[in-house]
Design goal:
CATH class of the largest domain: Alpha Beta
Bound molecules: coenzyme A
Strand content: 25-35%
Helix content: 25-40%
Shape: globular
Number of helices: 8
Largest sheet: 12 strands, mixed
CATH topology of the largest domain: Aminopeptidase
Number of strands: 12
């Protein structure tokens, strides 16, 4: 028997949720909806004997590069080539659209599959997590103005390497209280957004042009978040994030590897990046 791969639909979201629960991941139904809205023809499921055995998602960012995420296979069906077949399907889909660069953040489990399919390492990423007593004191936090969000989108375009305004607007609408900004003189010095995941609040993207903006955005975010657990994914070359997070009690949780296939012509600005949005989005 072999797996059959078809386009994912909203009706497959419960099956996707089941697979991500088994993997212990933090995504919600809202995240799956984001993938399907961003890429209705570019997310796939693998069926084995009529049962959904695996998933993969793709998002194309401005025809510059695409992100592959949610590569998940039911543990009962692993080691039969389903993960590889899903990846090959995603690559074909994106190659047919002439996307010059494919990117993803690999777990150690997925990395060998990606290397065999021509992905190369760009840099390491560390998942850090905070466990704390709940406190919800948002006094002293400014409400973010719409005007400022345009500056966030501008800065994000430069730091991420492509426009992802629709995605960031969807995050901000989903969790307006987790949008924080810092000023550097008259201009925007940094920003952070977040998502309420199934296990934890997820901080990211988190971007700053100087150390003070990095500190201010982190502190405001942690004040706004009302969860006992907070996750964040930090590039190893990040200038300020690790020391600031250690100071707040974050601890190392696991490693990921950012990988690319093709010409990585829009790598963004690692010098300003404190945390990625998440491995499934970039
Ligand atoms: C990573 C993951 C998606 C792989 O799925 P999978 O269906 O087992 O992947 P494949 O079967 O294609 O490949 C797995 C291994 O089986 C081998 N394999 C593939 N087809 C095979 C077959 N017919 N017979 C025997 N072995 C086979 C592959 O060579 C591969 O070997 P490796 O361990 O040396 O890399 C799965 O382990 C998973 O869901 N992990 C948890 C979530 C995760 O980490 N996802 C990756 C996110 S980046």
């Amino acid at each position: 028997m072999t797996s059959e791969i078809r386009v994912m639909t909203p009706g497959d979201i419960p099956a996707g949720m089941r697979l991500k629960e088994i993997a212990g991941w933090n995504q919600t139904v809202g995240d799956w909806r984001r993938f399907l809205r961003a890429s209705p023809a570019g997310c796939f499921v693998a069926e084995w004997g009529g049962q959904i055995a695996g998933t993969v998602t793709t998002i194309i960012y401005q025809d510059r590069f695409a992100w592959i995420g949610m590569v998940l296979v039911d543990p009962e069906f692993r080691g039969r080539g389903i993960g590889t077949a899903l990846l090959v399907k995603a690559i074909d889909y994106l190659d047919n659209r002439a996307i010059p660069c494919l990117k993803l953040d690999a777990t150690p489990q997925g990395r060998r599959i990606y290397e065999r399919l021509g992905f190369r390492s760009e840099y390491g990423i560390e998942r850090q997590s905070l466990k704390r007593d709940i406190f919800a004191d948002i006094r002293g936090c400014r409400e973010e103005k719409n005007l400022e969000f345009h500056s966030v989108l501008d800065m994000d375009r430069e730091v991420f390497g492509a426009d992802r305004s629709l995605l960031l607007k969807s995050l901000a609408n989903g969790c307006p209280e987790l949008v924080v900004t810092a000023h550097s003189g008259a201009s925007l010095g940094g920003y952070a957004l977040g998502r309420k995941g199934s296990q934890a609040d997820h901080l990211g993207p988190w971007v700053a042009s100087d150390a003070e903006a990095a500190r201010e955005t982190l502190e405001n975010f942690l004040r706004r978040s009302q969860r006992e657990t907070v996750f964040v994914d930090v590039p190893k070359g990040s200038r300020w994030a690790s020391a600031l997070l250690a100071g707040k009690g974050f601890q190392f949780s696991r490693t990921l590897t950012r990988m690319y296939r093709g010409e990585n012509s829009h790598p963004g600005r690692l010098d300003r990046l404190c945390a990625i949005l998440g491995p499934e989005f970039g």
